Amino acid sequence: MYKKFVQLILNNNSKSIDQLFTYGVPDALEDAVEIGKRVKVSFGNNKHMIDALIVSIDCSCRIPEHKIKPIIDVLDDVSVVGEEMIKLIFWIRERYVCKYSDAMRLLIPAAIKYEHNITVKAKNIDDIFLSDREKELYELVRDNPLELKTLKKYYTHNDIFTVIDRLKDKDAIEVISRDRLKGKEACEKYVSLTEDKNIEEYDINKTKNQINIINYLKENKSVNIKKLSEDLCISTAVINNLIKKNILKEEYVLYRDEEKSVVKNELELNEEQKKACKRIISSDNKVFLLHGVTGSGKTEVYMDIIGHYINEGKQSIMLVPEISLTAQTIDRFEKRFGSKIAVFHSKLSKKEKLIQWTKVHNKEVDVVIGARSAIFSPIRDLGAIIIDEEHEDSYISSTSPKYNTIEVAIKMAHNLCGKVVLGSATPSVNTYYMADKGQIEIIELKNRVNNNQMPDMKIIDMSAELDKGNNTLISEELYESIKETLRNKEQAILFLNKRGYSGFVTCKKCGHVIKCDRCDVSMTYHIKGNMLKCHYCGRTKRMMYECPKCGSKKIEQFSAGTQHVEKLVKQLFPNAVTERMDVDSMTNSDCYESIYRRFKGGSIDILIGTQMLAKGFDFPNVTTVGVLSADAILNLPFYNASEKTFQLITQVSGRAGRGSKTGKVFIQTYEPNNFIINAAKNNNYELFIKEELKLRKEFAFPPFINIINICLISKNEDLVIRTANEKYEEVKEAVKDMVKERSLLLYRPIPHSIYKINDEYRINLFIKASRIKLAELKKILRSVYMDKDIEYIKVSININTDTV
Hints:
By secondary structure, the protein is α/β, with parallel strands linked by helices. The chain has 25 helices and 34 strands. A 7-stranded parallel sheet has the order 14-15-13-16-17-12-18, with helices on both faces. A 6-stranded parallel sheet has the order 19-29-28-20-27-26, sandwiched between helices. A 5-stranded antiparallel sheet has the order 2-1-4-3-5. Helix 18 (about 590-600) links the parallel strand 26 and strand 27. Mean pLDDT is about 85; it is low at about 180-185.
């Protein structure tokens, strides 16, 4: 019956169908099927329409043919997912214990939509026997074709797809598919004259507007319909009317970017940079750690590597950890490579992402720039994947599948024969450990470009400031340095890793802390709007001046945030232009770009912000940097708190003195003798990593062991507790031999550190496992936690195999 069979991943969230399905290919679609294309199929007893991705094609099948359904239609003219990226889907599913559909959606942009609709049209029939139900459906479409959604309203039974199939087999009807990729979403509509004739020859009313349109198009040939409408002050309805009359023809053209000129790269690489580029390009190794001090010119190395692969006709990916860095990176890359750049980040609309995706897919760009999700760009001929500031947590997805971008990049590099460059001044402990073990080749840049000096760094004991009567967040020395900076027309950056005006609001009489009604966290005071805000669910309240528990009016704010610092700085330096960069002030991508350009241009004197400021900004006129509370992260209850503290202090400090002027950095702390803070002050990464690895090994933390976290979430507290305990017992039984071998530690379920968020309760289960048992453990976790039991539908389960 069928000459070809396809295996499909269905686009459905259900755990019960997390498997590959085999469908037959009708003769009419044999030439259209191709691995990586999407198809439409019917699924289930009610034959619901569903889309699916072809992952393999075969000419034989072991399943009896009478049990195999046919695919209904092929939705794409070309493959949307390459064969090597399909291998990546299978790897992601196994590596991160997720569903096929979860992994598949990473590679297909959300804006690729199509209508699940067909039109049924009757054919002329003579002596064909029809059952009663077949007759009923046939009569509905006999005089006029009907779309499926309309047909369902009038057909009185629930077997419509079965009856349609029977009528098709009897050649009584024709089924016309309307499902096609809406590529128009990524295009502009252009119009031109169907025929270039004299005005008198056109069969129209020849109104003033129509004549103006024709004359305009005679001169301009093909024009964007919006531009035509604006230039002639004519409604698009007039233009569309001429299209219907076939006077004008329409075409959809991919958005045309403004051409940007390439600026010759006048910056000559120094010897360190040249050696780094040559080694990465010529080496047989696939993965490299570029460990360079802040200001050592890593970006120039990246661009030279990418330029090499562009000359070979290959595309490359440049990843940055934060949307705020995109504008800076685009600026530098446009000057080097012109307009052949695609940009991806979370602030783009679905339509904008589709536009960028299409440009990459059509190989109209050489470089893809973006945050984490840009790793899944549809590149087929890969040159290099560059991951800047590779130590950042933002490269690990916070939603399922919880993939690690670095791991995905390395897998892609092997699949697509490309290279991966991980760049950082403060490499993550895991990455450095891999380099130390020879799994990654390490290349070092030990000096700043142009022989610029590292900034002068000083630790300020804030306890001594209190003794002197200074109870503000800015020490005397930092204050004097900012004053001098402003006098010299230079710029300052102040870093505090806490948003809002104050960290929490409490009653001094009874100790009651104002908490969110929906989350198990204290609310943060924001001076704008005089509001209390939950940073987890977004709920807000008006600021309280009376304790809801005891009625006392002794309500006070504690633990200052960036808004508090902003207010203080404006009081201390009223003539300076001060701005704040944090999640609350950066509401869209335009805000990031505006702050970046204004600070770069010198119209902002003092920039206050959270860890956004630590992520690779290059501002040559910054000469003073203040780390206002180095203890904020150091004292958090996480095993990697020391690592994050060292990285943040070093990275923020690296913003100072990047030009020809000497920079000064002030690290304010209540623990001036702390080993981590002093290692950061002395820019001594080697000492830090040596001590940190020693501690990690002693206490069995990554990279010496894997920590897996299973988080169960539900609005039903009793259900999530019961489910967590039941699943724990199942896992305990399945891993008992590993526990005996001491290759695995299983901990009992415990409430999440923030037990309730947005009225959902969260229970954690942690497992420590050796690398050699990881694959076996994942199979167990899939069988236990991907359970199809209907009771667990109300419990969401997130499995994180890369807990950091």
